[in-house]
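In the current project phase, we have settled on a layout for protein records. One protein thus recorded is set out beneath this paragraph:
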Amino acid sequence: MTNPVATATHMRSARVFAPGVADGGLPSGLTTAEVEARRLAGQTNAAALPTSRSYVRIVRDNVFTFINGVLFGLAVALIALGRGSDALVSVGVVAVNMTVGLVQEIHAKLVLDRIAVLTRPDVTVIRDGLQQRIDPTDVVLGDLLVATAGDQIAADGVAVGNRSADVDEALLTGESDVVPKQRGDRVFAGTFCAAGSVEYVAQRVGADSTANQLATSARAFRRVLTPLQDEMNRVVRVSLALVVFFEILVALSNALDQTSLVESVRTAVVIAGLIPNGLFLAIAVAYAMGAVRIAGKGALVQQANAVESLSHVDVLCLDKTGTLTTNRFKVAETLALRGTEAEFRSQLGSYAASSSDTNRTLDALREAFPAVAQTVVDEVLFSSAHKWSALTLAESGGPQLYVLGAPDILESHLRAGQSLPGEAQTWVSRGYRLLLLARACTGHRLQADGNAHVPDRLDALGVVALSDELRHDAARTLAEFAAVGVQLRLLSGDDPRTVAALALQAGMSSDAKLVSGPDLAGIDPASLIELLAGNTIFGRVTPAQKEMLVNSLRARGKYVAMIGDGVNDVLALKAADLAIAMQSGTAAARAVADMVLLKDNFGALPFALHEGQRIRGGMHAILKLFLTRVLYMALLIVMLAVVDIGFPFAPKQNALVTLLTVGLPTLALAAWARPMEPREHASSVFHFVVPAACALAVTGFSVYIGYLLLGPVLGFHLATDATNSPESRSVARTALTTLSILCGLLLIMFVQPHGVPVPGWRGVNWRHLALGLALAATFAVIAVEPRLREVFELQPLTLVDYVLLTFVAALWALVLRGIWRWRLLERVLGIDPVHGG
């Protein structure tokens, strides 16, 4: 197979021509009949970019997991040994988990795919001599396409016509420098037009194109695990290690005791159930629900963990133009420095009309000063790296070279004695974007050694001020982030003073220090850290500097989100923990984003933040239940193994306990979760789980021993007179199962609200109480119905037994609440209950 990266690198300098256009004429594109013929022949670009996980991936992630393989393997062994009912019940919880996970994720996929189709950027194609916008999947082989600044190249092809462009091939080659493209040069799917415009003929489409591979690679680069996902992975790895250890010990014990093969497999099934595989289901359901919820508020999730990731953000970095503002420029003021205002405006109009560039700045000038295009002798397109563009126009008096760019960049190249007037400085303080138009002496060459240079001894012709509208919801959104402790950083290519003026309008602090991009050149790491700690506004920064600032923040342990819309933001977006793009931004920004704000709805972010906090809250509540159960079971197995009086549960009983205490409750907790405070410490899980599991293990051990040894003596359920007989063990297991379910349901009352030092009845969520009562009623039906009781290998207990076990469960809850109230665990271990040490 051909390596697209190697091919692109090898052919970068190669120049070829499309059939029929080698004579220099620009074709009129395909005819409607030709398009239809090629569509019928299957020569289309229909290999659509993935917008969410595929159905195969959803099935694979929910069904073909390691723990599912272990449990299903043990179920097959039970069936082979004639214990089909054990196998059915044991894997029943797993089957329910898989089914719910599949339904939730497929539903979320359908919603996300439908939204993604609506937000997929169109491409410009020329057919029958007319430009039209079409879906990229409707491109056919031989189509003539046009890409302007920020557009993604939709298919591999060859440039035609007389236009030129700078193309960012970083996603293809890994090199951040833009590559100039003109007639005869190859262009590649998945790359982006950074400046100028280019017409190209599609030569490789659909499966033959590199577009899908490149876009997928761009998104794969964005795969960053959140702290919550890291925590879940650690829990599962530790549980897996514990299960392997127990399985080995139990296997050796069974071999020494000559335990039957059937009983050994049944025990192995119970131990394997210690792995909290339901955590993966819970987090998948929580992510899917979060994605669907914020889709209704105007945000499209492209990475499943994006919503939860937002709740971890310490620092929010954002671009100004197109992000904080609407990126709809209008000419506000002009100031002629040489000649009259009319002459200066005419020069601005001629420059804009003649340039082949299509950025929003020139569009504003074209709208304000309509003019006729002149013949262009030479051109340098605008780039966010050097902040200026230039044209050499063939005027009546001879070629004239004009430069248009940022005043602070061009001012040092003006003739001696020329400078910007004070009036222009006033415009900066009002948040206007300034551009200086200057003219160079005749005979100066723009290009030298393949590089563009600003001419020296320029004559300043005038200054034009552009206004950019602040987004109506920007101030409220930034205020909500600041209120929860998120630090804000503005990273813009504009003048720092202009950025500061708009930041002040958006409600940011007026005492923020300003840093200019040139001040960052060659800065040492220590000074950079100091700047990042004390500044919120960075202006005149290049794309590489934006990336450097984001990486520096992450190196300091910050969890960084970046919001951007342009090609110049792509590097910073890819470097951030969370990348957010605007829908109206470039295809490059959207391709690498974890989340896209539909209709540029900046106001969707506070809702997404709240939803992320809700996901964290739900998952920490679920984690408490799972870990309490795992630690309780592990301690109980060890305690009973020490006294050598049998295994505590049968597979069916363990499946029932799992279903009622963690299986079904976790689905409700994911849906009903309360938001977790942004800075709440995750160590609260440790302080919850250890006392709960230890107290429950002691209580369960006591009940099991009591029923096994003292039951016949005291008259509890007079099924047998022999202690430690199979009948006595069955009664003891039933009592222990009942107690485990009752305590597990009581535990649901305590997992929320978050941040409350002592969980208690005053903080009970009434929906949780209703859930607990409903599950208790379900168990009651199973306990009194003989056929259901037989399915789960439960013995009939008397009313006295149930009253006694209910009393023990309530006593356990009161003791546990006292342990939490008096912080006994923290006092014994000598640790800070808030910070975990």
Remarks:
- The mean pLDDT is 79.
- The CA atoms of residues 85 and 326 lie 64 Å apart.
- The two ends are 55 Å apart (CA to CA).
- The first strand starts at residue 123 and ends at 127.
